[in-house]
Amino acid sequence: MSSTATAKKQQSSGPVLDWSAGHGPVTGALSATTGAFALATSGAALSMPPGWALAVGSAGALGHTIAGIRVRNAGRTLATKAASWLVGAGWTTWAMTHGPLTWAALGSLATVGVGIGAAARSVALYEEAREDEANAAEQRAVAAELSAERRAIAAEWVDRVQRVCSITVRVVGVEMWKTGAGFSIDAELPPGGATWNKIAAESPRLSADAKLPHGCTATAGPGIHQGRVIIDVTTVNVLEEKRDYPADYSTLSIHTGIPWGYRTNAEEIRAYLREQCALIVGPTGSGKTNMVHGILAGFARAEDMLTWVIDLNAGSAGLPWVLPALNGEITREDGKPVRPGVDWLAGTYDEALTMLDAAVRVAKQRKMGYQDLLSKANTDLLPISAKIPQIMLVIDEGAEILASTDRQIRKLGEKILEVIRIARAMGVRTVITALGATGSVLNKLMIRREAKVRVALTGGEKEGMDLSKMFPGSRGLRVDQAPHKGAGFMSTPESPAALFKGWRIRPNQIREITAATSDRHPTLDAVSAKAAGPAYARRWDADRTAWMRDLDLSDDTSDSARDASGGLRLSALSEQQESAEDALARRFREEIDAQFGTAPEPHGTEQAAGTERPAGLNLSALRDEQDSPAQQAALAALVAAGPEGTGASAIARALSDAFGTTRQTVVGWLKTWMQDGTAVRIGEGTKARYVHRSHTANG
Question: What is the pTM of this model?
Fold first, then answer.
């Protein structure tokens, strides 16, 4: 017979007694009376001295009294327990003397048992009441102390808001944050049209008046209705702490939101991207790449999301999530192969265009292929699940792609905008990053309208950080509030723009997450896979991923991989394309050489003996005279302008697309060239123009 069957038989045979349980009023009385009867019967039969029973009862009464005092029982409880022992001992002594089997002895024993049970029940209820009252008194003391602290905070901030904002509010409640990093004040605005925005605009002054530590703020937001305001006061600057990405790799979903970091109250903030796109801006060194890795970590943990990554900078944003798995560097505990942490990675123009074309086809095919499902669900939003996953397109520096004037890159930008425009309902959304919150990034109506989840990583950088454009309608946001790397501002449709910080994620942790979430990644649904076609099915083929392994330094390098001198040929270097900076500088030089008949390169072959040097200005040496390709191009533009000259703004506009050169930088170069005689200024003020010395009378 199995152990399960035996247990069932035992359960069906009758009630199970718990012999380890303590006595209650009934079982205690039964135990006392039956024990006294057994002792009296045995003692009478064996002719024991009756005084022994009275001595034992007295010892029991004394012992229980001492134990009760140690646990601080009430006086009536001590008296009841002692009396029970003495009464029982007295009956036993009497029964041993006169015989326990008489009706008088049995009746009196029953009476003693009922009395003991009633007394025990009474004192038990009394002790429970005492304990409840003690707990309530303790809670009242804590509440009174906390209430006093809250009343003090409320009074202090009523005075502060009146002094700084000239608004008299009435505090409804004060909530202390569980993290201990601050508190929130719920206040009622006065009648007369005062709004929470007026308090929000005075956030810096409120913070200064409260003498909050650096990095801590007092920010105001809307309350439960328009006549209420919530003031969040941070007293501990958690943003200056370095926190690693949480080691909890539990399952997430597009519907539960993806954690992107934590607020100043140390609570995590989540991005809900079922219908929203996201825009992340941050200059170099602000922690933007780390933020992207944190986002990819959250997407990898989701059971209903597939991540496609585009990074034309050699795929650097996605390679840590792909290469360890493709190279077999990480394994699962069950020995099965590990899938890459992202579902598709494009690091070249052709692969990015292929991916975007596939995304457009998937969105269109889903609209046709899931009409029955949409009808049954009575919705126009495709029900996203593990069977029909959402596709998240993460495009590193995608805003620069959208703002590019290059014809080829502009084609990618058009595809990105098409995905954003047509694919919301069908579960294809984008996360786009940029180097700054500038007009060239935010002037795209589609980006402003669809990217409602926005992040500005400042790192203290003020240049190119127009927070008013990034978060329209939000006031009191200053770059110097988030000077730490990885810190900045984040807004979602659910929460207004406020300070936050992303977690630090390291390469080893990326490998851990890739391995831990490998079996969690969904597969692309049949309708979408058919639309994506072979371009998607063969995305991990060797020829498609060859660009990830361009630097092959293995010992068995073939002859074709070596150059004519027998050295190792690095394909990443031998096939390197001309950069935009070099291309623009070369184009300027070619145009100027053609116009002025400039001389050949000084580093070329020696001029043949007897040949005359061509007439004209030799500009090819500009590469050696200037510090950077941008400066070379600027000087070439100055020469190409001819005798009429040009202005600093015109040169800056010509270089801005390729180099990002500002007018202030060009002005500095022009001043230097004026000092060393390279350029001459004509005119003053806004009409000032600069002419190269080769076009002046003294040239």
Answer: 0.60
